[in-house]
């Protein structure tokens, strides 16, 4: 009896869920494909740039979700890696335009794939260094330390007068990719959609893998993981680096999208917003953070239309969500056990 | 030498402000297990309360009372409406809710008082300078701030170590369940501690008024430094908060004071200034990193 | 003794003024089921936690298979062949029973730096995990989330997880606490089979179970091992009678 189940291996209820998911994905793909056309048809092309922003933040929030939602690591400094990714694009463009060398030996670039890759490497390295330190603590200290280190990176860029300091750095033209007309917002939208699709596919494999299983275990009970022989620190660090790389991708896209980078990308409140997106949509779900990104960016757009003091309304909304839902507007998470402080 | 003494005193004065915030924050962390991002907002409220009353009435005494009252009342309201419901929740929800509080309070302050910073007049009695050692004058007001801070630190020390309530507070930081088991009204204890924290934050805010511009965002700036203090000192430890605050305050001030000159002797002025600005604002974070490498739980933590 | 799998020497653990284990020494031989009994507060769980590397002793040494493991981390000890079950269950409550055991199988197979292949359809994990579940009588509950399971089932799952790491020495902390009589009987049957395969250190309050299963018994009182012997020897030991059994437990 156990044998036949062993042969089946999968949860009997899982097949139906898979089917539903497949259908949902098809719908999502159709919506994303038709969106620019529809936007132009109804005479509202601003929808395309709005959707692009949502997609970029969806990637950033999903990357945070890997550690926050799956791993249970409450990082309050994720904007640092987002900003680092953006600055890599900005700085490489700066040296490309000036036709000189970064640090005297690295040439600038305006090639999308090169700058994107560089952004992933640099933000991953930043996450490696800061994560290695931060992960020596847990709970409250971890929250404070990730926030503090992100603030340190923030000040680093503020003090880099060469790259505009407080004022930031303008990227005059978007990076080049395969002869596409990147200046066209619809083209750039589809570039972002493609990268997001790849990113979420990789993410989906990752969280279902052996590594993902360990990561989810870390959230639930680290003591148990040690008791089956898993040293959790390294797994947490690897997850932290992967998350940093994801934020770097989003940052690089954002720099191209807005043709501008500034310390504002790394501001602590940006980290807060990413966190809100994850919680809003529901942590530890594949698309939850994406939904959170859509909601928050959408809410911001709607509220700013009403009043410049939109945060005065957003604040209480966040409080209500925290107090009266257990996080996650859509996937009302069940009483997850609070990790010990 | 004279300059060094002055800078050190400035550092101590900054450290005192950090301590007032860190003491409350670390107690709230330690005892209730709550991360309160809005602690900086209480600092802001204290500063605004005092600044407004000082501008209207010109009385510094009234300003002090207004600042303290505003922050304490705001603290109690926040505790009652929001924080109280967060005790048993996980950190993610505490962060979300108190982040929402920050947005609400900051934006509310902007709506009420605008984006222009308020400047608070120095109280006349304290506006001069005292010669601390012959030939070295130092602003009286800053000395007064230091004195108040040290006095509060001493008072807190006595309160936590010598009184019955203090004993409960101390026990609450390490053995939450035991205090509950003793039949102590834990809810009252929490409210008390939170109110005390709010009062201290407000005190720091109102004293900062005549030294800094009172403006939206001042709360978060100092909040993040306060986090650094708590991390260095160790969560739940008043002693840690004090020494952490002094380390951060003095280091930060000295770096800002002396690094530019030091670097100017090594490179061109503009390069030196840029680098110095970067290094000095990053300095305390590097110290924090160092502490983490040596003692991840903080220098004065009782935890293992 | 050459055949000692685990040797504890002069183990001392203090919490403030309280001494939980006090200069405690004992030996577990390869292949035996060694029970540790003692009144509440005698230091039994503290002993297990120290053996398992979750608490650092103030003094003393622990040798496992001839190697000094006193300073090793829990995970390192598990990789050398130790496993424990917890009195208060430590499970991954959002995961299914199968996930919990499969993760232990996975940990035993080596590192988990596999980032792509789907773990839940990996037969190398699920097959041994299902067999492990069947062994403790949970074969029908593989896909149930742990938080939905009864206390008794969670206890059984604890055992299945510990076994999935293929331990050479199994530390069991009150596996029968809170179980009903039928569940108890089932667990005793299971332990009887297990003791053929692996060495076991059993902390248990159920004296019937202890005397039925144990090859040797150590009696802990006030953090010290006052005697070790067979069930018969312990029963007849004068000191034990006074210190412990005299309270009417047998």
Annotate the secondary structure layout.
The complex is a heterotrimer of chains A (341), B (304) and C (250).
Chain A: H1 2-8, H2 14-41, H3 46-70, H4 79-98, E1 101-102, E2 106-107, H5 112-134, H6 139-159, E3 169-170, H7 185-208, H8 210-220, H9 222-227, H10 232-258, E4 260-261, H11 268-281, H12 288-306, H13 311-324
Antiparallel strand pairs in A: 1-2, 3-4
Chain B: H1 2-32, H2 39-57, H3 60-81, H4 91-113, E1 129-133, E2 136-139, H5 140-162, H6 164-174, H7 176-181, H8 186-208, H9 218-233, H10 238-264, H11 269-294
Helix pairs in contact in B: 1-5, 1-6, 1-8, 1-9, 1-10, 2-3, 2-8, 2-9, 3-8, 5-6, 9-10, 9-11, 10-11
Chain C: E1 4-15, E2 18-29, E3 33-37, H1 44-51, E4 59-64, E5 67-68, H2 74-79, E6 82-85, H3 97-109, H4 123-135, H5 151-164, E7 169-173, H6 181-194, E8 199-203, H7 207-213, E9 216-221, E10 224-229, H8 231-236, H9 238-243
Parallel strand pairs in C: 3-8, 3-9, 6-7, 7-8
Antiparallel strand pairs in C: 1-2, 1-4, 4-5, 9-10
If you had to describe this structure to a student in words, what would you say it looks like?
The complex is a heterotrimer of chains A (341), B (304) and C (250). Chain A contains 13 helices and four strands. Chain A has 341 residues and is mainly alpha-helical. Chain A has a domain at 50-276. A two-stranded antiparallel sheet of chain A has the order 1-2. In chain A, strands 3-4 form a two-stranded antiparallel ribbon. In chain A, helix 4 runs antiparallel to helix 5 (112-134) and helix 11 packs across helix 12. The longest helix of chain B has 31 residues, at 2-32. The mean pLDDT of chain B is 83. In chain B, strand 1 (129-133) and strand 2 (136-139) form a beta hairpin. The N and C termini of chain B lie far apart (41 Å). Chain C is α/β, with parallel strands linked by helices. Chain C folds into two domains: 1-81 and 168-250, P-loop containing nucleotide triphosphate hydrolases (Rossmann fold, 3-Layer(aba) Sandwich), CATH 3.40.50.300; 90-166, no CATH class. Chain C has a six-stranded mixed beta sheet, with helices on both faces. Chain C has a four-stranded antiparallel beta sheet with strand order 2-1-4-5, covered by helices on one side. Chains in contact: A-B, A-C. At the A-B interface, helix 6, helix 11 and helix 13 of A face helix 4, helix 9 and helix 11 of B.
